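Table S7 (text form). Paired inputs.
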Amino acid sequence: MNMLGLRLLLVTVLLGGALSGCSLLSPFTTCEGTASAVAKLNELPALALRPAGAVPIDEEAEAQAYCTEDSGDAGLTARRLYAYDGSRTEVQEYYARAAPAAGWHPVHSLTTQPEAGFSVFCFESDRHPSVTLAFESPEELREVYGVDPGPEPAGPGSRIWFQLFAEAATDGSRMGC
């Protein structure tokens, strides 16, 4: 093959890879070999915090931890899903006390009112991945997480659902809010 043919082949391969969104050597991480980092994230002390009366939605939801490959890159998540017969304010007040005592501090005020119908509050630690508290609707739990949140209460505002989750890089290293 002559030099011109070699150059055309190289340009074709590089241009084809660039236009398809792929590269010859992926800079992204995968879930391969992440089992110990997933297990360590799942044991994060802040994830064990929950107000008295908060019950796991189901046994599987209580200790869910996994690695996902999304958009070509991987990340770790550990999550807890709970039902609570009380108010958002009670849950927020609990985490305002319990999270700092365990070494996680709120990034923003926990008195912030929900925007667009949902609330998300993040707690950071100097040494550990951040932990997020999010309030969910029964519809979101069914559609997004495939979890049955159980019967809805007869009276308005007497039951809420929330999740507590942490995310980390594939090596288990800290991720902030």
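Next pair, protein 2 of 2.
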Amino acid sequence: MAGRLHIAPLDLSRLLPDLAVDAPLVTSPNLAPRRLLSGIRLEAGIPRLGRLFWGLTPPWLQVLDHAPHCARAESLAARPMFRDAFRARRCLVPASGVYVWKPQPRTKQPFLVTRVDRRPLLLAALWCRFHTSLAEHSDSLALITVPTNALLAPLSDRLPAVIDPGQARRWLDPETPLEAARALLTPAPRELLGAFPVSRRVNSPAHQDAACAHPTGPMLRQPD
């Protein structure tokens, strides 16, 4: 499960040349849920980068702590909270890495999962809008997770689905058939992602410094 993100300054123009920026990219070495983060949505045919609350908050949700920050790909069609959003309100979260915690006998070792080439990740997500008044609203999102591939399975059983930049517009477009969108939610290829152990400093979301992502060991990756 994705409980923390690493978001470095990213050059998104190379991935989405026509991207419009409504708000600068939110960056953080240790971003926890229940915070604002950047998401990409398709508006009038143009991908736009804006800010959303990380934790899906539909209008009927009464307790903010119950806002899910992740949705399982397998349950998108079954759960009303996710079903409508998956049909019409898909988005992408740009990130440089996802933290996971590998279970160990006495503790858990944090790892940072990144692309092997360290290029940006586009994480699949869905969003909703809550109108607080006739003129104001708040937008929120949840990442969509899929089973982890065999290489990274010892670290975590699930990770956010990674959308290929070439499929980004297809994912974002509400006119894309649901089955075609669902087909993009697959475990990442073994050669795409790697992971390296990092300092346990990342365990506390209060720590917001580069040391959170400092490697403490070699990268686990698919051999060439």
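The mean pLDDT is 92.
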